Amino acid sequence: DFGRSSELAFVVEPSDDIAVQEQPLILYCQVEGIQPITITWRKNGVMIVDSENAFMLANGSLYVSRFQRVRGDGSSDEGEYDCMAQNHYGLVVSRKAKIQAATMSDFHIHPQNAVVEEGGVARFQCQIHGLPEPVILWHKNSMPVNTDNERYTLLPKGVLQITGLRAEDSGIFHCVATNIANVKFSREARLTVSGSHSTVYKDPMILVGPENLTLTVHQTAVLECIATGNPRPIVSWSRLDGRPIGVEGIQVLGTGNLMISDLTVQHSGIYVCAANKPGTRVRRTAQGSLVVQAPAEFVQHPQSISRPVGTTAIFTCIAQGEPPPQITWLRNGQILETSDHIKLKNNNSTLSIYGINQADEAIYQCLAENSAGSTQASARLTVLWADGLPSPPQGVKAETVSATTIQVSWEKPLQNTKEIIGYVLHIRKAADPVEMEYQEAVSKSTFQQLVTDLEPSTSYSFYIKAYTSRGASKASEVTVVSTLGEVPAMPSLFIKVINSTTVQATWEPSIKLGQHEGFKLYYRKVHLSQYTGPVLLASNITAYNITHLDASVVYEVKLLAYNQHGDGNSTVRFVSLRETVERTVLNPPCDCMKDEQNNKTSTTGIIIGIHIGVTCIIFCILFLMFGYRGRLLMCKNVQEQLSTPQIPRSQRSATGLVLNGATRRDRDDRDLNGKQLDMNELERLFPASPSQEQQEKGITSTHSLSDPHDETQISTLPLDEFSIIEEQPDPLPKNPHGSSPAAPAPDQGPANEG
């Protein structure tokens, strides 16, 4: 029952048909609903009057006694027929049925003679147009072709394929086309099979590829592909978009023709036929497109509804198909015209009726149509109206209070006011569609409403309804009034001192200012009452320099925006130039070129100073390192000299040689054998016993010489760079321990001349 109005709906609708010349035709139409119901028929939108040739049967069907494609007066029985049904609830119109005459043209493609070598492929084709589509059969030597032979393939479009030709396939072929209108024969063609099967290699080649087809769902598509080559190529199919072809309803006819049964919209696409040489990548391809159309069908039907007067009724009708269907709305069989209170949205899939009244009560139909077919669904709108409802409110007036406020007032209805529970004020911008309307509820004892938050300089429409528990009254008369214009808001103002006699006033453009024509700028000395100005500035100006000012006084600057409704509130700022003058005296203007040069010189000096400082630090570090190293060497030499006994000058050379020789020998031994200096050898070379302090130093020196990890145990300076100066010591007392008298006194020591 979806898509039907219970008061009036179609049970059977007329369908498309192909009529035979001079034969009767019946178009069926069956309606159910509340009687009495009147049924009429139209052809191409014109009412059909009963006549001897066409009249309506008792069940509502249309009977055409002798269908004629062209009558003597030039008229035709072909066209689009629809059935209309009407009762006191409304009128509905059926889908349009397309009626065409059965015809058959002459063959425009006849089979051609062919000479093909044995083992090859032969193809014959004949083509003819007709309604309905003619069935084409093939005859060989005046006998129907044996379709049980797997080498013979008959395609629906009038193609005969013969593969693996043999000598017995030679003969005369012709085709026979048949439909309800006629039977026709094509011309004959001779097939000659010559020679024996060739073994010469031939590249694969596609003789005929698939054609572009446009079909309707549930039909059958045959995509032809016939290929030759030696060896015989393998034919395969694929979709250009990479999607799988599938297996359900798929069949291969002959050696490579693709047949798809029970077509769906998903079968639409570009199909590629490929002929491959066996065992190689050598291939040839051909492609054709398949377009599958689907008649319009409803996804969501409109539903019958009941609504009180003054409310909104919405019908939804969603249809699908390929190509996408167009949706048309009918009201009692007539095309629905949109208006202020009737709107169509979402590609006509939604019908909205605002502020419904009794005149809107009708049967509404949704008609979906595309090139593959049409369908319709209907629904009824019932407008609820209770007896004893109030009459419309009276004397509606609207007065402008401000740029954003309007005062609306009214008087109570003239009739049936006892059951009123309140009023509803309907508000809308006059330029907006009805669906943009909004409401404000008002108590039953109130007869005025202050409507706020409106837009300046804008027209608004108002009407009132009185409500009871059983429904609403009809709408009052509509009144339209405009809000006042609004002056601009205060601009943001900033003051910047340029020099001792000039300041700059700047402000920011803002949408908060509203519509404005420009700005007015005033300024004055604070001790004066008279302003200088106004300075009129365009709306796109955002800055202005005020010059020739007195630096000794304080100034007041005022800025405001204005439009055709007047001046807005002003923004005031105070500014003093005295501080600028004082800063100028204390800090005279600089010579920029000189300062820039000085800055460059200072920068260069800083860089040079840094380099010099780093160099000095490096030299200091090196000096400290080498100085520390030198002190270690000097201390070593001094200890050796202090521990060396005084000998006569005559023995100095020998002793020096011995010492030098011992030192070198010891160094050679350390270099070669890694051994330490022999302590007995030292005692033999230096038999004298020094004082206690010298002995301690000698022990320390000897210890350092014996320490294999001490880098200073052997001086790196050759001994022959030093000389020992012998001085005459004071007479010493005898050493009670038998020490050598040649030992030096504690406060004496050799002098280093080196």
Automatic annotation (TrEMBL):
GO biological process, one term: cell-cell adhesion
Domain spans labelled Ig-like: 8-100, 105-192, 204-287, 295-382
Region of interest (Disordered), residue spans: 643-754
Record Gene3D superfamilies: Immunoglobulins
Keywords: Disulfide bond, Glycoprotein, Immunoglobulin domain, Membrane, Repeat, Signal, Transmembrane, Transmembrane helix
Bias (Basic and acidic residues) ranges: 663-673
Record field: compositional bias (Polar residues): 643-654, 689-705
Domain Fibronectin type-III: 392-486, 487-583
Keyword Glycosyltransferase among record annotations: no
Subcellular location: Membrane
GO cellular component labels: membrane
Membrane topology according to the record: Single-pass membrane protein
Transmembrane segments: 606-626
Superkingdom of this protein's organism: Eukaryota
Main localisation: membrane
Family: Belongs to the immunoglobulin superfamily. DCC family.
Name recorded for this polypeptide: Immunoglobulin superfamily DCC subclass member 3
Species of the source: Panurus biarmicus (Bearded tit)
Gene (name only): Igdcc3
